[in-house]
Amino acid sequence: MRRGLADHVLGRRIRDVELHGHRVARRHLAGPQDLTDRLAGHRVEAVRRRGKYLWLDLGDSLGLILHLGMSGQLLVEDAAAPDEKHLHARFRFADGGPELRFVDQRTFGGLALTDLDPTGIPTTIAHIAPDLLEPAYDRAAVVRRVKAKHSAIKRVLLDQTVASGIGNIYADEALWRARLHGERPASALTGPRIGGLLDSAAEVMREALGQGGTSFDALYVNVNGASGYFDRSLAAYGQAGRPCPRCGTPIRREHFMNRSSFSCPRCQPRPRGLRASAGS
Ligand SMILES: [Zn+2]
Fold first, then answer.
1. How many angstroms is it from 263 CA to the middle of ligand 1?
2. 5 C-alpha to center of ligand 1: Å?
3. Which of 30, 53, 102, 173 is the most exposed place for a label (fewest CB within 10 A)?
4. pLDDT by residue for the chain (280 residues), tens digit each?
5. Are 40 and 17 in contact (CB under 8 A)?
6. How far is the CA of 265 from the centre of ligand 1 (A)?
7. Backbone phi, then psi, for 169, in 5-degree steps?
């Protein structure tokens, strides 16, 4: 989404922003009027992402975070295109070109202005660690932080303050590649094992981004960055009962942290002493 958005809005000056209803601005504590007043006239200097956060750098240390929630979409469309039923915000640009629209069926998403620190990161997400594909990612430091945790390795992978951008799907795929069961205690793993797992996670993210990036068309930026990936390349996630691509053993599903976890019983044996949790 970041790449698609950058293709369409980078370098363009915002003429005005129109909100439909106030829910879309509820994360902006100074209110909807302040949000639209402050956006007008700014040029989009960069489109950036850290983990699951996406924002526009508007210059003058001002950023606009685009929270997509579960169902938020960003559409780039001609002004003449009819309004979507769930249109919440419309950005018009000074060049008179296509609009940017924020559409959200369920309105978990929204817009919020934030200050940017000197490296361009929103101060409101200072607690979110760099993701594995950012230049700011320090592999050795993250290995040490993971090793210091006594909780299950999957829980640590999902902890956005350790490294960001790894959700349930990428975690399962990375664990499968690294041949690790997600309930192994992080502190019991060797440094090289943790490093290898992080490398696997980075590889999964890179491949997913490569495939997501092929789905954009000229006027429609509406891509769940992983949608192509869902269909074609998953070895473990969602594959319960299908053969492990490495050894042929049927993939199992277990419950962990209120979600489903998928793994290969043979390549990723459960740690000794832990009872199986409601498998299938
Ligand atoms: Zn296997």
1. 8
2. 38
3. 30
4. 888 889 889 999 999 999 998 888 988 888 999 999 999 999 999 999 998 899 999 999 999 999 887 778 888 888 999 999 999 999 999 999 999 999 888 777 889 999 999 999 999 999 999 999 999 999 999 999 999 999 999 999 999 999 998 989 899 999 999 999 999 999 999 999 999 999 999 999 888 877 764 344 433 444 433 344 445 678 999 999 999 999 999 999 999 988 899 999 999 999 987 655 544 3
5. yes
6. 7
7. -70, -50
Do residues 225 and 208 lie in contact, with contact meaning Cβ atoms separated by under 8 Å?
yes
Tell me the CA–centroid distance for residue 242 and ligand 1, in Å. Answer: 11
Rounded to the nearest angstrom, the distance between the alpha carbon of 264 and the centre of ligand 1 is: 5
250: region left, alpha or beta (phi > 0 left; psi from -120 to 50 alpha)? beta
List helix spans (H) across 100-218: 139-147, 153-158, 168-178, 191-212
CA of 205 to the centre of ligand 1 (A): 21
Identify whether the C-beta of residue 271 lies closer than 8 Å to the C-beta of residue 181: yes
Residue 126 tokens read as 């200072």
C-alpha 177 to ligand 1 mean position (Å) = 10
User: In the structure, how many helices (H) and strands (E) does the chain have?
Assistant: 7, 10
- Spacing, Cα 225 to ligand 1 middle (Å): 27
Both structure tokens of 19:
């909100």
229 CA from centroid of ligand 1 (Å):
20
